[in-house]
Amino acid sequence: MLSKKGKFSHFFFFAPVLALIGVFIIFPVFSTIYLSFFSSSGKFTFLANYLNVLSRREILNLKGFSSGFPLGALLHNLLWIFIHLPLTTFLGLVLAIILKDVKGGSVIKSIIFLGMITPMIIGGVILRFMFDKNVGIVNAFLAILGVEPKTWTAYPETALFALIFGSVWLWAGFSMVLYSAGLGTIPKDYSEAAKIDGATPLRIFFNITLPLLKPITMVVVTMTVLWELKIFDIVYIATMGGPGGASNVMGLQMYFYAFRQFDFNSAAVVATILMLLTLVVMIPMMTTLRGERG
Amino acid sequence: MKRVILLALVVGVVVFASVTGYAGQKTLTLISGWSGAEREAFLPVLEAFEKETGIDVEYRIYRGEDLSTLLPAQFEAKMTPGDVIFMWGWFVTEKAREGHVLELTDIIDEADFLPGALSSAKVGDRIYGAAYTGKIKPGFWYRKSFFEKNNLTPPKTWKEFVALLEKISKIPGIEAPIASGDGVGWPLSDVTEHFLMTFGGPQLHKDLTAGEINWTDPLVKAVFVARLVPLLEAGYFSEPIEWTQALELWWNGDYGLYFMGSWITGMVDDPDDLGVFSLPGAMGLVFNPDICFIPAYTESPKEAKQLLSFLASSRGQEIQVKQGGHIATNLGVPLDAYPPVDRRVAGVMQGKVAMLDLDDAIGGEFQTTFWDQLKLLWVRPARLDDVLEVLEEKAP
Questions:
Q1: pLDDT tens digits for A65-79?
Q2: Which of A133, B192, B195, B384 could be a cystine partner for A151, CB 3.0 to 4.6 Å?
Q3: Residue of A66, A153, A262, A263 to mutate for B, most B C-beta atoms under 10 A
Q4: Which helix (H) or strand (E) is A187 found in, with range?
């Protein structure tokens, strides 16, 4: 049990960082939430702002299901999650397993990890060129299959998917590294014992390895979803959310509201919605991990 | 002790001299969006100013789209990244109304400029921006050698124009008759405005700019349905390509025509090989003066006004027009200062109404929406109704 003096000295050392967190994180968060409930003239609107923002076609455009993209930034972010998440998670796991005991595996892993350390702005520029009709590497590969070249980011039906698939290499390194670390913590005795009992490699993977990687998977899934929710720079550089809003995302729309239209209340609404979606993802992860430790 | 005091005095004098010496050497910062070949053509103007006044000028590149985000926050903090900044007229007048821009009525005389050149930079009778050189958006550029080689002639009627496009499309090696420039989207808006002005008339264009007619109005829609959309559906326009890349591809013969502003004459290897024609029947053309202003938070207002006056003067503009691709707004620039190709461009303007660029005049959210929706229209012309609906939503 700490003495009063001990508690005071703890607080004394924590105080600076608590002050910084208070000023740069806690205050802006609550300030933004507060702003989202008011109009630009300062009138309290309660949920009217939210209803207004969610009814705008740039946020949610259900008509797009019949007329074509855009579907709205919110649904575009969900598409990012549904497509990008399983791809990068699965790819990272497969790469981690393949490169586990391979000679030169660490060098190859470093090369794959380059995507993670590439600034996302540069990633966006690379994506723009990758899908270009005249110079794009994607068209070079697709030409082998007889597909006519086009600038995939210029068309509403393909712009979003081009960005999603094109950015898998940017994030796969993250899941690969985490899974590599996780595989390293699994005692070899388990798999050896299973082999002796006659288990096949596939059975060992599904019954032993995968369950033991559950905490890693939780972290990979959570961090990837958070990345996909806040995606901005790649889209800004590669397509600016176009054509016609077909590749727009919530992060970019928040930027448009705040810094193009100077509609800070709408921007605050989008920010708060993103925060709530983040909590929906974070809370189960925290609960699961705490339960596992317990 | 005496030695210490003497040493301290010497150090103090040296520091004082270097500080005041440094302070005496003014350096202004000028910001505009010109890079590459356009920047190279602009630097001689700044060098002439530096030589004449002894004031150094540091040139920084920022796109207008980025400045429109950056400057409002800086101005609210009573700061500015530049002493003289080139921006859209609507932005200058908006910031002037908010008190962020120095008034220039005392140093700019409207009578020295082309009629209407300063209209986008004025609030009432007060002038807040200076007109530098401007660019005409005269129409479709072609290489004369390409036309000669393929027995092509500029069209005089709409029918001849469509026939020309069909003929070009059949030439081996041609990807599409017309290259479509892209980037943030303004090249497509230039083409669209040319169609609106030609087939809807200058008054329709003015009404759209002023918000006095809807984008969904049958008169507006008719221009798209009858003229632009059929050409898009026929594949006469390429898919949008980054505009400087499109310039290169067009020059190398991948495309026959390229709609671009008169600055193109300063960007090609052989300007004498350039020809241009407007859409047959065009009664108005966009003439866009570049507007520069001085933020109220400049630390060197006197020197900034000197630089701005130089840019607006016939001396400064003559240096620029000699580089090619620019049309002077100052009436004092003689015609023989222009390269031959620009004299021809100025000739295209004869008998036509000079119009402001629609999206530059409206600005704000509409401008970026206009650009983005046209990118959609270009690849999916069947979505015209959706496009016009969105434009009407965001229109003033």
A1: 999 999 999 999 999
A2: A133
A3: A262
A4: none
Asked whether the CA dihedral A67, A57, B392, B280 is positive or negative, the reply is negative
Which residues lie closer than 8 Å to B322 by C-beta, 6 or more apart? B337, B338, B339
Task: Give the pLDDT score at B117.
Answer: 87
Asked if A243 lies within 8 A of B372 by C-beta distance, the reply is yes
Instruction: For residues A233 and A246, give the distance between their C-alpha atoms in angstroms, rounded to a whole number.
Output: 16
Provide the whole-model pTM. Answer: 0.85
pLDDT, tens digit (0-9, with 9 covering 90-100), for B129-187:
999 999 899 999 999 999 999 999 999 999 999 999 999 999 999 999 999 998 778 99
DSSP A207: I
Q: Is A123 on the interface with B (CB under 8 A)?
A: no
- Provide, as residue numbers in chain B, all residues whose Cβ is less than 8 Å from the Cβ of A151: 239-241
Residue of B nearest to A236 (CA): B184
- Asked whether residue A288 carries a pLDDT value surpassing 90, the answer given is no
CA neighbor of B321 nearest in space, from B51, B133, B136: B133
Rg of chain B in Å (alpha carbons): 24
Cβ–Cβ below 8 Å for A242 and B386: no
Q: Can you point out the beta strands (E) in A120-196?
A: none
Domain A36-293 is in which class? mainly alpha
Strand B122-123 versus strand B56-61 pairing type: unpaired
pLDDT tens for residues A98-146? 998 888 888 999 999 999 899 999 999 999 999 999 889 999 999 999 9
Shortest Cα distance, chain A CAs vs residue B235, angstroms: 13
Q: Are the C-beta atoms of B288 and B261 separated by less than 8 Å?
A: yes
Q: Show me where the domains of chain A are located.
A: 36-293
Does residue A67 sit at the B interface (CB-CB below 8 Å)? yes
Got the DSSP string for B210-249?
A: HT-S-TTSHHHHHHIIIIIHHHHHTT-BPPPEEHHHHHHH
C-alpha gyration radius of chain A: 23
Contacts 24+ apart (CB under 8 A), A78-85: A79/A160, A79/A164, A80/A164, A80/A228, A80/A231, A80/A249, A81/A225, A81/A228, A81/A229, A83/A161, A83/A164, A83/A165, A84/A164, A84/A167, A84/A168, A84/A171, A84/A224, A84/A228, A85/A221, A85/A224, A85/A225, A85/A228
- Closest C-alpha to B87, from B106, B105, B100: B100
* Residue B101 DSSP class: B
Which chain A residues touch B245 with a CB distance below 8 Å?
134
Show the beta-strand stretches assigned E in chain B: 27-32, 56-61, 84-87, 122-123, 126-127, 130-137, 139-143, 176-179, 181-182, 241-242, 255-260, 274-277, 284-293, 353-355
Q: How far is B205 from chain A (nearest CA, A)?
A: 22
CB A237 within 8 A of CB A129: no
Q: How confident is the model at residue B345 (pLDDT cuts 50, 70, 90)?
A: confident
* Domain annotation for chain B: domains and CATH numbers: 22-135+289-338 (3.40.190.10), 139-260+363-394 (3.40.190.10)
